[in-house]
Amino acid sequence: MISLVVHGGAWNIPDDMVQAHRAGIAKALEIGWKLLSNGGNGVEAVEQTIRSMEDDPTFDAGRGSFVNALGEIELDASIMNGSSLRCGAVASVQNIQNPISLARLVMEKSEHVLLTGMGVVRFAKENGMMQCSKDELLVGRELERWKSLQSKTRFSTKDAFKADRPSDTVGAIALDTAGNIVVGTSTGGTPNKYPGRVGDSPLIGCGTYADSNIGGVSCTGWGEAIIKVVLAKTIIDYMDMNGADGDTAAKYGIDRLAKKADGYGGVIVLDKHGKPSVCFNTPRMARAYRTSEMNSTVIEV
Ligand code: GLY
To answer: What does the alpha-carbon distance between residue 216 and residue 214 come to, in Å, rounded to a whole number?
Structure first.
């Protein structure tokens, strides 16, 4: 059994952006599926799947990300291998187009889990990762959004989530032929965020978690709320301790996010057998999945 499930964010995706989301997640899933079905490992499949969405300006990850209050682009990403529990993450990183690849380098080439600030730039250089300019990440849509927010006297992320629920974070979970469950998540965070703000995506247990004996979870939505309920690990623990299936656990997690933290978002879940589940409390969520028991890919927005 092999499986791959991806998401391209859970929010109030406008009608005129639905097609771009469908195309972006379909392309990303195709890339990862090819790798997995040729016997590739889950880490490579998740990295390449997410890179495709980071390169696609449709999503709030890599190129196309939201801009912070100072007009800079700061990116967060994480990856976790559920067989070894090894994980790597980067937070508030600038001038890197594919932070998921940097997170993988942290997992594989460092003894740490999460790098930030000057250290992450140094680590990227030491490991030969090319830096990009801010202009390569910035798209006109986000520059315009940022400009319009500067004229507001007060902008709160919570208000933004109540109104538009902007969360175009991307994520992927793979089950490979060796039975490894691997999860990755990547994001530009929230619009006009305070410089240095870190969301749930690079925090292991909050936006990302994998345990090959149980399953994997990648989250999207309002990071501050997701952090409060440690959403990814909460769902994994519910499956582990209550014997819940992925659908029940995903719903439990989203209900908890809403009730305990007044939060919005969505999750993709893959159980240890490779069965995908999705749950969200936003108007739309972009998601796609395929397993070796299916003849074609399901793509929904
Ligand atoms: N869920 C992405 C973020 O809040 O940064």
So the answer is: 7
Q: How many domains does the chain have?
A: 1
The CATH number linked to 255 is 3.60.20.30
Closest CA to 182 of 218, 205, 216, 233: 216
Ligand 1 pocket, 169 CB below 6 A? yes
Span from the CA of 201 to the centroid of ligand 1 (angstroms): 6
Active site residue 234: no
Please pick, among 49, 58, 157, 169, the residue that the annotation labels catalytic. Answer: 169
Query: Tokens 């109030």 belong to which residue?
Result: 12
Cα–Cα distance measured from residue 107 to residue 260, given in angstroms and rounded to the nearest whole number:
32
Does 199 sit in the ligand 1 pocket, CB within 6 Å? yes
How confident is the model over 128-147, as pLDDT tens digits?
999 999 999 999 999 998 99
- In degrees, to the nearest 5, what angle opens at C-alpha 103 toward C-alphas 98 and 107? 150
Burial class (CB in 10 A: 0-12, 13-18, 19+), 69: middle
Region 55-82 average pLDDT: 96
Q: What pTM was estimated for this model as a whole? A: 0.96
CA-closest residue to ligand 1 atom 4: 223
Q: Which domain holds residue 128?
A: 3-300
Per the listing, tokens 């004996």 go with 213
Please tell me the distance from the alpha carbon of residue 255 to that of residue 257, in angstroms, as a whole number: 5
